[in-house]
Amino acid sequence: MTTLLLLAHSDFTASRANRALLAGLHDQSGLEVAELYALYPSGQIDFAVERERLLRADRLVLQFPLCWYSTPPLLKHWQDAVLTPIFYGEPDTAALTSGLPVLAATTTGGPSASYRPGGPAGTIDELFAPLRATARKCGWLWQPPFALHDVRTLDDAALTRAGEDYKSAVLSMPMLERRLEAVT
Ligand SMILES: Cc1cc2nc3c(=O)[nH]c(=O)nc-3n(C[C@H](O)[C@H](O)[C@H](O)COP(=O)(O)O)c2cc1C
After folding, report:
1. Based on the structure, what is the number of domains in the chain?
2. Does ligand 1 lie within 6 Å of residue 145's CB atom?
């Protein structure tokens, strides 16, 4: 069983929060991490590689620091480069991913108060409406998002606890139920 984690951080070497979240998953069997900015520094995503990676996945995690209230540009580009050809051109491939559970996990510099209902930024659920709609369009199973706020104020112990919470969120995701082809 493979958990595919697409990590989209434009400067992961300088990361504290996303690094801590990922550290929480270090002992997870079947975890495949694709660090998009490291794999594709020029921004040219390899469709064939990413298509196969997606087809291996029994669950999908999108992890990124919030970037202007949205995903970092390379994760948006992954949607354009990978999802567009599959979901508008390869119905058989698309069908193979039907029911894929997907979790969006983000870190924010802003405090949780900024993301409260009616707050200045709107809630994370509201901000992730395009991702949720994309997941639905793809026939995927949208999971409640994971968010870690105010990350610059968090000490190492708090980051370690966040990594443990993240691990629980990932472990509680269902797995893709693959339909077995009838043998005739
Ligand atoms: C270009 C850019 C845009 C950002 N946009 C937001 C934002 O919209 N909301 C927010 O709360 N934080 C924003 N931040 C702060 C990052 O989310 C924060 O630095 C990151 O989550 C820290 O994670 P890390 O320690 O893994 O780098 C932004 C940071 C950068 C560099």
Report:
1. 1
2. no
